[in-house]
Design a protein that fits this description.
With 293 residues, the protein is α+β, with helices and mostly antiparallel strands. The protein contains 8 helices and 11 strands. Aspartic acid (ASP) binds next to strand 8 and helix 6.
């Protein structure tokens, strides 16, 4: 029997000058949602899905409702989820009109047929798996509309606010999940690390799990999720592995960002090169989620 743990993030590059309590409250509620699942004996996969759904529903984060807009002013979201016992994974990219892309990614995982579905095909799959479409407008917040207007002159920018969760359950299964609207002002059809198993998300129950955030192109360049778990396996030290992985992102990937980790023993860690990455951690020794920012 393992000691369950969950860690969630609300994106590298988040801006504390603007309503920091909203960010704290958002990640705390997500950790609690995931923890409820773990504490009642539920699976790590259910826990990370539930934590990420809570952040997708929160308009302050760049995932689900509140996603950043493409250069054309539309929402296109990426998400991925992985269970580390059998390396089962599912992901969706460039999806529209879905309130909780992480649940759609979970359905792809459960299909056991494909790993990644994109665009209209992913929406067709959502329909056939009973996931209702929402109105495209319902995902767009005034905050992102304003940001889009300001950004019109620039090409694209990582906005922070991407969300992710990594958990270990009492049976020793590790799972990880990531969801995002991508980078503000991105080209339509652009897919980032958050949809890519091995880059934005990875889990192997014999090592641990990871969810990344930041400059997606840089994260893909160094296959950050998989490299972070490689460091974790070598060093058996989650804090060190998180830090070295972020150094790799900055030095070889030539980008900024951060990541959260849980190892197979339930030790959680995080690191970021950006000034802020909202994080919340919950485990049985804590009365309520620790929110270290
Ligand atoms: N990594 C995400 C992407 O590139 C953005 C972020 O984490 O802020 O799509």
């Amino acid at each position: 029997m393992r000691v369950p743990t969950i860690i969630v993030h609300g994106g590298a590059g988040a801006d504390l000058s603007d309503a920091p309590d909203e960010l704290r409250h958002g990640v705390r509620a997500a950790a609690q949602a995931g923890w409820q699942v773990l504490a009642s004996g539920g699976s790590a996969l259910d826990a990370v899905e539930s934590a990420v759904r809570s952040l997708e529903d929160h308009p302050r984060f760049n995932a689900g409702r509140g996603s950043v807009l493409t250069v054309d002013g539309t929402v296109e979201m990426d998400a991925s989820i992985m269970e580390g016992d059998r390396l089962e994974c599912g992901a969706v990219a460039a999806v529209t009109r879905i309130a909780n892309p992480i649940t759609l990614a979970r359905r792809v995982l459960e299909s056991r047929r494909h790993v990644l579905l994109v665009g209209p095909g992913a929406i067709q799959f959502a329909r056939s798996s009973g996931i209702a479409e929402c109105a495209a407008e319902s995902l767009v917040t005034d905050r992102q509309r304003r940001r889009h207007a300001q950004l019109a002159a620039r090409s694209s920018a990582a906005d922070g606010g991407t969300v992710g969760a990594v958990a270990l359950d009492r049976h020793g299964t590790v799972a990880a999940a990531t969801s995002t609207g991508g980078t503000a002002g991105k080209h339509s059809g652009r897919v980032g690390d958050s949809a890519l198993i091995g880059s934005g998300t990875y889990a192997d129950s014999s090592i641990g799990g990871v969810s990344c955030t930041g400059d997606g192109e840089a994260i893909v360049r160094v296959v950050l999720g998989s490299r972070a778990l490689h460091y974790l396996k070598e060093a058996d030290n989650p804090d060190y592995a998180a830090k070295v992985a972020v150094d790799l992102l900055v030095e070889e990937g030539r980008g900024q960002g951060g990541l959260i980790l849980v190892d197979w023993r339930g030790r959680a860690a995080y690191a970021h090169s950006t000034p802020l990455m909202p994080v919340a951690i919950m485990s049985p020794t804590l009365a309520e989620p620790r929110v270290p920012f």
